[in-house]
Specification:
68 helices
């Protein structure tokens, strides 16, 4: 029954020709054949094949004579060599011929047709073919095969074709069988790949055949032939079938007798391909070689395009896990000790790109948790290839930010297991994994030094549980020493494990061993750099080179922090040999010093002031720098750099950035972006000369000067390359996909860019956005806006930024920095800010469209969103109308990156976008009335985008139509006009106190920020006027009896919030605040100061009381000069006073009453009126006579008379008597004396002998105030010598007439006659400096008065002690003698000389004073006796002496 048996033979006849019976035939066979198990098995297989392939069971046992099947040929019917053969004969005709042939031969037609078709396929494949396509058919062959398969499909449809026989026949010609022909058989449904492969008797052979053909197919795909679609489809179908059949958990495809064959073949082929690729990479495959192309193509099948049609992820995950296992375990030739020595060469950037690409494709399907778990399982159960294991760890931490925590947790478990049972394998694994992850830098994993310190730097570490654990640790570390890199030995020595003192010997033994090893390696631990990266994979640098790098890094840290780096301070103490021998010489390299001291000079000065530079070394440095200035040409030669050393890394960085940009528009290259970013990080590190990671720099905050940002040339070039590349990449990526589908490239790029050079990047952004913004092109605006969004996305990992002068030194998060960089002042800056805000907000809404609002709010600064609202309101009047639901627009990022971007349309589209409108409902994001005022005050009207009329209309709309009716929860005023005025006034003053007010041009109004401030003040005037009209008619206009005017409440609250004290900073801030109050008051109606009407039942209004309190408590100290307010506020008050009084029933009586009250409650008002009376009198007279024909009120006439008396006194004619009160006449005379020349004053002062004593005392006090003012005010109009001589003349007159004047130096508020009055006229600073004035007149004290007056000694000692206290506190520095005065006066004004003379005076006076002069002296010395122990001792000694007779003795004091 076999195929080789010929039917025409005499099988059924005896030799004589007689036919034998069936029984005889069977009996004969039984006798001839013995039982053979193998033969029986073959017989079963033949029977099964016959049953499966035979089409006619009735003819099963027929034995028909005929030729062998293998010799069958239909060449007479079908010409395989002719392309038209099949076209000339119909399939039915050929089928009929085959049936006739099979009937004649007695063979099933299915077997006959299968053999015929297989033979035809073999003839087609063996036809002459192009040698370059070893797996593909030619065009001619493909046509023939197509015709043949069409006929085969006919045979199958009519049950005239045996698949099994066809498969067997094909394998007989497998050496000539082409892979494409097999694939066509599968695609056309003739026979599936599974059936064909399972039919092969030798699984190993079929696996080898498939492996060879798949390699050729991969090579052909990479050759970019014209049939690329066919080759890729072939590879995809094969791989999908292998994955589905090889990794299907419970296969239900059981068509074959042995269903186990197909999974074996599939796994075998996939494993062969992977092993081939791994071996090729290990052997160092040459790029663009045939092997390299094959490996690259095969690794590409792990991407989504090849396996994308695999519906079930189960087989795919099992395939990827199996692949990962093979990668990690194939050919484990390296030991752990080899890994310790070589792992620094296995970082992500140094791993072969093909292998990292394979890792990334595996990461797509497997989560970080699954990857780490699988890695842990493989390491625990199998021998591994350490190079691929550790390169896999590097890829894991680079591609997955969350992998850091997973690895830390796993390493912690490994360490716990290791120390619990002394498992050496766990210990080795943990150390290798940590070191490998740390090699990828701080953005991926913490440094090895930090991990080692955290693990063993305290007794809570793994080693602290027992002595056994300590011994295990140091044994392990000691065993590592022969294989260790010097970097890790340095970590262990500089950050040793913390051990109890009784086990200290274990540590010292290890450190000795490590130092010995370092000595063998010729590495000195003493000469290690301050900023040397202990986790770096680089070589150990020479001490001199490392010192130069340390200096550069230390100066950079100092420049950004303003403080000496902690590392340098520690090195000056604990690492003094390196600090003195290497760091300082590198720092103090002689050079030509710049005219404007740079950060290098400032750093040296800071070290010198901290005594960290030996004086001799500093002196030598200064001399060398001076010599360098004399020979600049030599200095230039000494610092010349080789261009190649800087240009080569820069060129490599440019090339790497170019490769990344090329990948942006090619979707097939998106999986290599992380590799390219890692390469960029390495190139950037080389360009900037960073040999350490960022974690070695203790930058907690970044110092940034927004007005004068500066960068070193190398940093400037590198950062410009990075920013330009980011912008170009964004444009390229946006041309292919919207932001939400661009992948994580921007985040990866931003982290790399900012992880190394964040201070430089922010500095450059400051230069671009704040100083060059309007000149930036649209791609730059879009790119920088997107970068700002991604910086906000990672805000938690960045240090805060301290924005330097003129802005206050407040630390800002990085997103808030952009709010400071974007100014809104001129037309150009307004338009640029609008573009930037529109781009940033649009990008964030597109990029994070599926994220929560919290993510959107964290990416953008609230200030930036508020500026966008401000700009849209201001520039587009259509945006001021309420939005309807139909106005909601869709947002598209695409038009923005086009060259002709319409920014107005884009801004309005964003304004009406539904998501943006919902975002504005978040707290702290909606533009408030206060925010609007602060932004509006920054506008410079002369360069505004709006005209004056448009700006006024906008102000009216914003205040009265938008913010006033808006609820307070939405940032409005709830319709409260007083609240609106309060917010406006606070905004005005906040703006002036902030640094932004100084950024305007020099010609702008300092007080209110230019004309915009004037416009805002105009709105305030209108609102205050409206508020006055809204008062209750039953209440006097402008106030309520209990509260007064709201403005004074604002002033009071703000003053309470200011720092109190007499420091220069506090005084200047308070003075600046008060000047703003005064100018605001001057812009408002005078009724604000006094009220609109005086009532008989309440003549002193609440507003008057508030103004008096403001004058007495604040303006007296900061807004007055020499006992008088300025002219403007004085005139404003009196105008308001007359206006209010003229509305009362008896204006004269009311004016007299108010001014009489001023004498006790606010006398400074009256002295101010006296000073400015010449200009004040005409105004008041005109105002009074316009409403009233009677003479001026009596109190105003007293002011008139006082000025007239002063004028008469200084005239040559006889003086009229001084009017009452005396203090008012004295003040008038004092102001008049200031306005005449000194020679005229000396003559007229002789008339003082005829004046009343009280007037002389008051005049002496006012003269003392003038004397102190001449010292305190540098630009005073008062002549210092003149004021001094006036004081001396008045003192002589007082001494001559024996009028006591000592009470002026002991003023208190309880003294109703003098103290309460004069202390409300003189500034507090003047009264504090009275001791200075007292002893300035020392030479004019009368000899008799010092002893005659009992109180003199008490006053003199009190003044001396206060003078010493003033000197110790530094307050006498404000009264230093002005330049250019006479020698006599210079001696009087020098505080040191003054104290010396005063001390000598007291020591001579004390022994000569009578006993009664020492009463109450103990109280005087109780709390101040230690100011001058010698004077105190002299006083106490004299006080304890025997009582004298109180006889008058001639003193010898002067």
């Amino acid at each position: 029954m076999s195929d080789s048996q010929v039917p025409n033979s005499a099988a059924g006849q005896d030799p004589e020709g007689r036919r034998r019976s069936w029984a005889e035939l069977l009996a004969g066979r039984v006798k001839r054949q013995k039982y053979n198990p193998e033969r029986a098995q073959k017989l079963k297989e033949s029977a099964v094949r016959l049953l499966r392939s035979h089409q006619d069971l009735n003819a099963l046992l027929l034995e028909v004579e005929g030729p062998p099947c293998k010799k069958l040929s239909l060449s007479k019917v079908i010409d395989c060599d002719s392309s038209e053969a099949y076209a000339n004969h119909s399939s039915s005709f050929i089928g009929s011929a085959l049936q006739d042939q099979a009937s004649r031969l007695g063979v099933p037609v299915g077997i006959l047709s299968a053999g015929m078709v297989a033979s035809s396929v073999g003839q087609i494949c063996t036809a002459p073919a192009e040698t370059s396509h070893p797996v593909l058919l030619t065009v001619e062959q493909r046509k023939k095969l197509s015709s043949l398969l069409e006929f085969a499909r006919y045979l199958l449809a009519h049950s005239m074709f045996s698949r099994l026989s066809f498969c067997q026949e094909l394998w007989k010609i497998q050496n000539s069988l082409l892979l494409e022909a097999v694939w066509h058989l599968h695609v056309q449904g003739i026979v599936s790949l599974q059936e064909l492969l399972e039919s092969h008797p030798d699984m190993h052979a079929v696996g080898a055949w498939l492996f060879r053909n798949l390699c050729r197919l991969c090579e052909q795909i990479e050759a970019s032939c014209q049939h690329a679609d066919i080759t890729r489809a072939m590879l995809s179908d094969f791989v999908q079938m292998f994955v589905l059949r090889g990794f299907q958990k419970n296969s239900d495809l059981r068509r074959t007798v042995e269903p186990e064959k197909m999974p074996q073949v599939a796994v075998d082929v996939l494993q062969r391909m992977l092993i081939f690729a791994l071996d090729a990479l290990a052997a160092g495959v040459q790029e663009e070689s045939s092997t390299h192309k094959t490996v690259r193509c095969w690794f590409g099948v792990f991407g989504g395009q090849t396996l994308g049609s695999v519906i079930s992820t189960g087989p795919l995950k099992r395939f990827f896990s199996h692949t990962l296992t093979q990668i990690l375990t194939h050919s484990p030739v390296l030991k752990a000790s080899d890994a310790v020595q070589m792992q620094r060469e296995w970082t992500f950037a140094r791993t072969h790109p093909l292998l990292t690409a394979l890792y990334r494709r595996l990461f797509v399907m497997l989560s970080p948790e699954e990857l780490v778990g699988h890695l842990q399982e493989v390491l625990e159960t199998q021998e591994v290839h350490w190079q691929r294991v550790l390169s896999f760890v590097s890829a894991l931490v680079v591609c997955f930010p969350e992998a850091q925590q997973l690895l830390e947790d796993w390493v912690a478990r490994l360490m716990a297991q290791a120390f619990e049972s002394c498992q050496l394998d766990s210990m080795v694994t943990a150390f290798l994994v940590v070191r490998q992850a740390a090699l990828e830098g701080p953005s991926a994993f913490l440094s090895y030094a930090d991990w080692f310190k955290a693990s063993f730097g305290s007794m809570r570490g793994y080693h602290g549980c027992s002595k056994k654990a300590l011994v295990f640790l140091f044994t392990f570390l000691s065993d590592l020493v022969p294989f260790e890199s010097p970097r890790y030995l340095q970590v262990h020595i500089l950050h040793p494990p913390l051990v109890p003192s009784k086990y200290r010997s274990l540590l010292t033994d290890y450190i000795s061993l490590a130092k010995t090893r370092l000595a063998d390696l010729k590495v000195s631990i003493e000469n290690m750099g301050l900023y040397e990266d202990l986790s770096s994979s680089g070589d150990i640098t020479e001490p001199h080179s490392q010192a130069l790098q340390d200096v550069e890094k230390a100066v950079m840290v100092f420049e950004h922090t303003g403080k000496i780096p902690i590392t340098v301070m520690e090195a000056s103490i604990f690492r003094r040999p390196y600090y003195v021998s290497h760091f300082l010489p590198a720092l103090l390299t002689p050079r030509v010093l710049p005219k404007v001291p740079d950060s290098h000079v400032a750093f040296i000065e800071s070290l010198r002031r901290a005594d960290k530079i030996p004086p001799s070394l500093y002196s030598t440095y200064c001399q060398a720098c001076s010599a360098a200035e004399e020979k600049p040409e030599d200095a230039a030669l000494g610092v010349r750099a080789e261009p190649s050393s800087a240009e080569e890394p820069l060129g490599q960085l440019t090339a790497a950035l170019g490769e990344l940009r090329a990948s942006m528009t090619d979707p097939s290259q998106h999986d290599v972006i992380s590799t390219q970013v890692a390469v960029i990080s390495e190139r950037l590190r080389a360009v900037l000369g960073h040999s350490e990671d960022d974690s070695s720099i203790e930058i907690s905050k970044i110092q940034l000067s927004i007005n004068t940002p500066r960068l070193e040339p190398q940093e400037h070039t590198a950062v410009d390359l990075l920013l330009t590349s980011f912008c170009q990449n964004l444009m390229a990526a946006s041309s292919v996909a919207p932001p939400e589908r661009q992948g994580p490239w921007a985040t990866l790029f931003m982290r790399t860019m900012c992880g190394r050079v964040l201070p430089a990047v922010l500095t450059r952004l400051c230069q671009l956005l704040r100083h060059q913004g309007p000149s930036l092109s649209a791609p730059h605006v879009l790119g920088l806006a997107a970068l700002a969004v991604h910086l906000g996305e990672s805000r938690s990992v960045f240090p805060e930024v301290v924005v330097g002068p003129p802005a206050p030194d407040a630390a800002l998060p990085v997103p808030a920095l952009f709010d400071s960089l974007l100014t809104c002042r001129t037309r150009d800056s307004l338009l640029f800010c609008l573009k930037f805000c529109t781009a940033a907000i649009s990008y964030s809404l597109c990029k994070f469209s599926s994220q929560s609002r919290d993510i959107l709010c964290s990416c953008l600064s609230p200030g930036l969103i508020k500026k966008f609202q401000f700009l849209v309101f201001r520039l587009f009047s259509e945006a001021r109308q309420p939005l309807s639901r139909e106005d909601a627009a869709s947002l598209s990022w695409r038009p923005l990156y086009l060259p002709s971007a319409d920014w107005q349309r884009a801004a309005l589209s964003l304004w009406t976008h539904r998501t943006f409108r919902e975002l504005l409902k978040e707290e702290n994001i909606h533009l408030t009335y206060q925010d609007w005022l602060h932004l509006e005050l920054e506008i410079q009207p002369e360069a505004d985008a709006l005209s004056d009329t448009q700006r006024q209309d906008f102000h009216q709309w914003a205040i009265h139509e938008h913010f006033l009716p808006e609820s307070s929860a939405s940032g409005g005023c709830d319709g409260d006009l007083e609240a609106a005025c309060t917010i406006l006034v606070n905004a005005l003053m906040d703006f002036q106190q902030s640094s932004r007010s100084y950024d305007h041009s020099e010609n702008s109004d300092l007080v209110f920020g230019g004309r915009t401030g004037n416009d805002i003040i105009s709105r305030l005037q209108e609102m205050v006027a409206d508020l006055e009209l809204q008062q209750d008619p039953s209440v006097p206009l402008g106030h309520t009896p209990s509260q007064g005017h709201f403005l004074f409440g604002i002033f009071r609250r703000r003053l309470q919030a200011l720092t109190s004290g007499w420091s220069m900073a506090a005084s200047l801030q308070r003075q600046r605040e008060l000047l703003m109050y005064k100018r605001i008051l001057l812009r408002l109606p005078s009724s604000v100061l006094c009220g609109s009407n005086f009532q008989a039942e309440q003549p002193i209004t609440a507003r008057c009381e508030q103004f008096f309190h403001l004058v007495n408590s604040e303006m007296r100290n900061f807004c007055s000069h020499g006992g008088a307010l300025t002219q403007d506020i004085t005139a404003h008050f009196f105008r308001g006073l007359l206006n209010a009084c003229l509305r009362s029933r008896d204006p004269s009586l009311m004016v007299d009453f108010i001014l009489a009250k001023c004498q006790t409650r606010c006398p400074l008002i009256l002295t101010s009126a006296l000073l400015w009376w010449p200009s004040l009198e005409p105004v008041l007279l005109c105002q009074w006579r316009r409403h009233c024909q009677r003479p001026l009120p009596r109190e105003l006439q007293k002011l008139q008379e006082g000025r007239q008396f002063a004028s008469d006194f200084l005239s040559p004619d006889a003086a009229s008597p001084a009017p009452n009160p005396d203090w008012l006449s004295a003040a008038a005379l004092h102001f008049a004396i200031q306005q005449v020349r000194e020679e005229n004053v000396r003559k007229q002062l002789k008339k003082l002998d005829c004046e009343r004593e009280e007037l002389l005392v008051f005049l002496f006090f006012f003269s003392l105030m003038g004397l102190l003012s001449s010292h305190l005010t540098l630009n005073s109009t008062t002549d210092p010598p003149k004021t001094f001589h006036v004081c001396a003349a008045i003192l002589e007159c007082l001494e001559k007439r024996k009028i006591s004047w000592l009470a002026l130096f002991q003023l208190t508020e309880s003294d109703l006659s003098l103290g309460q009055l004069l202390l409300r006229v003189a500034p507090d600073q003047h009264t504090r400096l009275l001791p200075f004035a007292f002893y300035s007149l020392l030479s004019y004290f009368h000899e008799d008065a010092a002893i005659r007056e009992e109180a003199f000694l008490h006053v003199a000692v009190d003044m001396y002690l206060k003078l010493v206290q003033l000197f110790v506190a530094g307050d006498t520095s404000t009264v230093s003698p002005p330049a250019g005065r006479s020698l006599e006066l210079q001696g009087q004004g020098n505080p040191v000389e003054l104290i010396t003379k005063a001390r000598l005076f007291l020591l001579q006076l004390i022994p000569r004073c009578p006993k009664k002069s020492f009463s109450h002296m103990a109280e005087l010395l109780a709390d101040r006796g230690d100011c001058d122990p010698e004077v105190s001792a002299a006083l106490q000694s004299r006080q304890q002496a025997a009582p004298d007779a109180d006889l008058y003795q001639e003193p010898h004091l002067f």
